[in-house]
Design a protein that fits this description.
By secondary structure, the chain is an alpha+beta fold. Among the domains are: 121 residues, Ku70, Chain: A, Domain 2, CATH 2.40.290.10; 73 residues, no CATH class. It is 36% helix and 24% strand. The chain has a seven-stranded mixed barrel with strand order 1-2-6-9-8-7-5. One of its GO terms (molecular function) is double-stranded DNA binding.
């Protein structure tokens, strides 16, 4: 069984449920070490005192917050834990909201929220079922690793999922970050074709059909270099010009519809031919049997 990374109590109203937090995801990543170019010498990082040049042990390092130019307030780890001793074990539900109301941009990382003991299975299942029935999500706050998180707790099958979330002031304003953005597309043939293309490419969501192709290419690159083989790179696509946009949309819709129709045709003939094979064999068998009988009659005569 996986090891929990946080444990505490999920509380709403007068109800308190012991829970444990587990990682729900793991990222694909190819491990690389750093070397000095042209050598086999590893590059390693050390915690160095910039004044003395001496290496400092991890346990001897404390945190400092700059208040004015060059002046810092030093804060110990114990002091951070002392300012919220109770909240470090509490997952307090502030309110319930419609799950669809939460913009996915707020979601940060997913965790599984499991029962904290055998004696609270009923209350855990009760909350999970109630969230499923109402299509609601719980908005809560909790402290983990000296940081307060905003969280969304939702039901997913048999488990509660906790999504850590960004606070509103942590999300950047796209207008300030990107400047003037394109206005809404006017009604016209281009918009109609864009909608047709989206409809033609719409399919059922099947997450297992997607995989990390970049990591696979990195692994292939490493293997090719190990064998001394030539590495082939892909060229980046060119942007579609405004004058070519309608033509590109029309060709894309036609290709999408053709691909979907082709897939349907591939399946249909297979079923029909399978049904026709058996009668064909039977008729062939009857003909050969008839030939043998007539041949016997002729020889007897």
């Amino acid at each position: 069984m996986a090891r929990s990374i946080w444990s505490g109590f999920l509380s709403f109203g007068l109800v308190s449920i012991p829970v444990r937090l587990y990682s729900a995801t793991q990222e694909h990543e190819v491990d690389f070490h750093q070397f000095e170019r042209g050598t086999s010498d590893r590059i390693r990082y050390k915690r160095i005192n910039e004044r003395t040049g001496d290496e400092v042990e991890y346990d001897d390092i404390v945190k400092g917050h700059e208040v004015t130019g060059g002046e810092y307030v030093i804060v110990e780890k114990d002091e951070l834990e002392e300012i919220a001793p109770g909240r470090s074990r509490a997952l307090e539900i502030e309110q319930f909201v419609e799950l669809a109301e939460i913009d996915p941009i707020h979601f940060q990382k997913s965790y599984y929220l499991g029962p904290g003991g055998d004696d609270n299975d009923t209350s855990y299942a009760l909350l999970r079922t109630a969230l499923q029935k109402t299509d609601r999500a719980a908005v809560a706050k909790f402290v983990m690793r000296s940081k307060e998180y905003l969280a969304c707790v939702r039901a997913s099958g048999q488990v509660l999922v906790l999504e850590t979330m960004y606070f509103a002031d942590e999300i950047r304003d796209p207008g300030k970050e990107l400047g003037d953005l394109p206005k809404a597309a006017s009604k016209g043939k281009q918009l109609d074709m864009a909608v047709d293309l989206i409809e033609a490419m719409t399919e059922e969501w099947k997450p297992k059909q997607y995989h990390d192709t970049y990591t696979e290419r990195v692994e292939e690159l490493v293997e090719a270099k190990r064998k001394g083989e030539e590495v082939v790179t892909e060229s980046a696509p060119a942007a579609t010009g405004v004058t070519d946009l309608l033509t590109a949309l029309q060709d894309s819709v036609a290709a999408a519809k053709k691909g979907r129709a082709g897939g349907a045709r591939k399946q249909a003939p297979a079923k029909k031919s399978a049904k026709k094979k058996t009668p064909a064999k039977k008729s062939a068998a009857k003909k050969s049997a008839a030939k043998k009988t007539s041949a016997k009659k002729r020889s007897a005569a």
